[in-house]
Design a protein that fits this description.
Rossmann fold, 7-stranded mixed β-sheet, 29% helix
Length: 207
């Protein structure tokens, strides 16, 4: 298994993170349009969203590299959870097996974000969709952070395993569309007022 960014991300329980409150409804709304039957949660963390995915009637699998997160998430009955990170060798039965791949607040933690693109492409069926969220950065929000002297708080550089990449609408789209493996089909902001969003969600369809 490839060496991860941090040995421990600090998962202690299965409690939801603050970001899930505004990401959940947006992701479920997106999925309403696709009607998936099979979903892979890439970077599931402590698995706190896995019960929600199961309640939709989906066949759910998940992957998480962190040992503590994996131990907690695999307690969710009915989910096939593997201790894997993006870029790791995937189970053969996962290849082109899923209608939707969901990866929430993961890409900002990756040294090589292209591994996320490769993993999503490998597990999705032809025409399947990747739903990717990450903290939003744009001109208005960046200006507000500077004006209110919030950059240090926003970046939280002392956190082990924290954010190392900072994405805009344009750069995240470029990451997934760069090699023509995906095409963008939807964009949404989540949390807070428009253009001050906490996070953004891109939906990319496998080509």
């Amino acid at each position: 298994m490839k060496k991860q960014i941090a040995q421990r991300y600090g998962w202690n329980d299965n409690q939801q993170s603050c970001s899930q409150a505004y990401l959940e409804p947006a992701v479920l709304s997106i999925c309403d349009g696709f009607k998936p039957t099979s979903v892979l949660d890439i970077g599931t963390g402590n698995g706190s969203l896995l019960p929600l995915w199961l309640r939709q009637g989906w066949q759910v699998s998940a992957m998480e590299p962190d040992a503590e997160g994996f131990q907690i998430s695999q307690r969710v009955a009915g989910v096939d959870v593997r201790q894997l990170g993006v870029g790791d060798d995937l189970p053969q039965e996962w290849r082109e097996a899923f209608d939707v791949a969901i990866s929430l607040e993961v890409v900002e933690h990756l040294f090589n974000p292209h591994h996320l693109v490769e993993t999503a492409h490998a597990v999705l069926k032809p025409g399947g969709c990747a739903i990717i969220s990450t903290p939003y950065h744009g001109y208005i929000k960046n200006l507000a952070l500077a004006l209110f002297d919030k950059w240090d708080f926003h970046h939280h550089p002392e956190r082990v395993g924290g954010h190392i990449k900072f994405w805009s609408k344009r750069t995240l789209r470029s990451l997934f569309e760069g090699n023509k493996a995906f095409r963008a089909v939807d964009f949404r902001g989540a949390g807070r007022a428009p253009y001050l969003w906490n996070s953004m969600i891109w939906v990319f369809q496998k080509q």
